[in-house]
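To illustrate the input format used throughout this study, we show a single complete record. The first block contains the structure-token representation of the backbone; no residue identities are included at this stage. The design step must infer an amino acid for every position from geometry alone.
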């Protein structure tokens, strides 16, 4: 069975200031997610599931569909009120629940190994190839997770701070820990992140997660239980707390229920965290077209 690609596209891109998942960066107004679908399709993925919000569903679905991509497409919807029975939304909560909650929205439509990506990140052709190959070997398994890691120095923005999952791995390339750092900035000597008032330096060679994970379907059940615990604890004390994918990945590693293979490739990441990042992305896409990696007309 071919693996599925789960595209997390429910965020509006608050720092970017627009619905960046649909913003054109290619010569024919292609969005970054167009290149993601193109890469996934040729790597061997058999279906795409988009996690979106109802308030922009009509426009999004009109543009991104099976007819256009030539691959099966389904939609699931993330909203604040999609929580387990017996729980209520804390007073004052407006922020979405986070990336692990977004993944959970697809539990009823994905029954095979799958990869989860951000809609607004460009991961590179090779990343989809190594992920598809690994997922195809995971059919029928449980706890066989994976991720594509990137060097921190290749993922920073010149225009503000970024959030990255800082990773450590063992000698066999299995993930040991992944820690979400939400305020990483470039410095004269490399990079640093802020935690409260304290700045900590980071090497530019540090491996980071860009939310390109591979999972076997058991990830849904453990995430469902993890979300209940999150709602009963963190969400009660902090109305801005988020339920991140790395949180669940760490818990599965710690419990011994899963191992996460760190997949290596020559793929280069880029993205548009801020509007000022866009011209660089446009130029990089054009360079890849000139190199023959992509046709000028994708669809």
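Output of the design step:
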């Amino acid at each position: 069975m071919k693996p599925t690609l789960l595209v997390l596209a429910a965020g509006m891109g608050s720092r970017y200031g627009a619905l960046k998942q649909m913003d054109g960066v290619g010569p024919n107004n292609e969005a970054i997610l167009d290149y993601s679908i193109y890469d996934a399709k040729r790597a061997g993925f058999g279906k795409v599931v988009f996690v979106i919000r109802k308030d922009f569903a009509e426009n999004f679905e009109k543009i991104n569909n099976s007819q256009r991509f030539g691959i099966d497409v389904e939609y699931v919807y993330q909203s604040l009120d999609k929580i387990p029975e017996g729980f209520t939304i804390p007073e004052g909560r407006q922020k979405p629940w986070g990336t692990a909650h977004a993944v959970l929205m697809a539990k009823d439509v994905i029954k095979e190994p799958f990869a989860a990506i951000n809609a607004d990140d460009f991961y590179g052709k090779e990343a989809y190839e190594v992920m598809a190959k690994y997922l195809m070997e995971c059919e029928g398994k449980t706890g066989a997770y994976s991720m594509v890691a990137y060097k921190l120095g290749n993922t920073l923005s010149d225009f503000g701070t970024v959030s990255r999952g800082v990773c450590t791995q063992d000698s066999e390339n299995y993930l040991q820990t992944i820690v979400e750092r939400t305020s990483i900035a470039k410095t004269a000597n490399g990079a640093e992140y802020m935690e409260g008032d304290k700045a900590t330096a980071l090497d530019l060679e540090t491996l980071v997660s860009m939310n390109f994970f591979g999972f076997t379907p058991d990830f849904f059940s453990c995430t469902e239980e993890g979300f209940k615990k999150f709602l009963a604890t963190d969400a009660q004390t902090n109305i801005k707390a988020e339920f991140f994918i790395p949180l669940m990945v760490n818990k599965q590693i710690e419990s011994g229920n899963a191992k996460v293979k760190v997949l290596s490739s020559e793929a280069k990441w880029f993205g548009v965290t801020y509007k000022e990042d866009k011209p660089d992305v446009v130029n990089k896409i054009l360079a890849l077209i000139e190199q023959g990696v992509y046709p000028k007309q994708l669809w």
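Structural context for interpreting the output: DSSP finds nine helices and 13 strands in the chain. The chain has a mean pLDDT of 91.
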